[in-house]
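User: Sequence in, structure out. Go.
Assistant: Echoing your sequence, followed by the structure tokens.
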Amino acid sequence: MPSLTASRLAVFGVIAVVIALVGCNSYPPASLSGEVRYEGAPLAAAGIRLYPIRGTKGWGAAAIIKGGRYDLPLGSGLAPGTYRVEISAVQKTGKQVPDIDEFTGKTKGMVDEYATLVPEQYNTESTLEVTLRAGANTHDFNLP
């Protein structure tokens, strides 16, 4: 019985990896961009996350919202299908709070306090959804 040489094993290994990678991303890519407004104004600085639901393939994706705009380009892990959308933002309250060292429990000074700007129904308890098709998609979110 002939034995396989190391070079033949390497070739078979490379082929197996390529087949596995192609099989993992066997869906057409999708992208998503748009604007996010809260109470009529563009969100200056925030985050947007998409989680696949209802059998949608892909990993989901996240992006930073700057000046009210976001962009999740092709290759960001999105596939055609439906996603749950979470939008989160914080803002300074104008107050200072103690900066407590988590290991010693001692106060290190004072820092700005931040509060969640966007209500839970748009982030941790989001009911927002978006459906994507293959290729470029645009969707604006107007949060009351």
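User: And one key feature?
Assistant: The two ends are 73 Å apart (CA to CA).
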